[in-house]
Amino acid sequence: MPHWTGIVVVLVLFVLLFGGRGKISSIMGDMGKGITSFRKGLKDGGESDDAADGEDAIDVTPPKAKEKQKK
Q1: Residue 28 in domain
Q2: Of 37, 34, 17, 35, which Cα lies nearest the Cα of 25?
Q3: Residue 31 belongs to what H/E stretch?
Q4: Is the pTM for the entire model greater than 0.85?
Q5: Number of folded domains that form the chain
């Protein structure tokens, strides 16, 4: 038969892990929400970057006419 201190340690660990309001289930739920938000951000971020690049881009290439005149 296990010693009484071993039983107390197991009970304390059990209460910490599975007791209260379901800490593990809430942690896993939060992790699932985080992964969903991350995927949504990647999906939305890729589409908005393409649209923003076309509108906000600054053309810094020199005009071709000036290049021909210098040569």
Answers
A1: yes
A2: 17
A3: helix 23-56
A4: no
A5: 1
Tell me if 19 is assigned to some domain. yes
- Please give the Cα distance from 55 to 26 (Å, whole number): 42
* Structure tokens given for 32: 């699932």
2 part of a folded domain: no
pLDDT digits (tens, 9 = 90+) for 13-42: 887 777 766 677 787 788 899 999 999 988
Per the structure, the complete domain to which residue 18 belongs is given by: 11-36
Residue 26 in any domain: the answer is yes
Determine the Cα–Cα distance for residues 52 and 31; give it in Å rounded to an integer.
Answer: 31
User: What residues have CB less than 8 Å from 46, skipping those under 6 apart?
Assistant: none
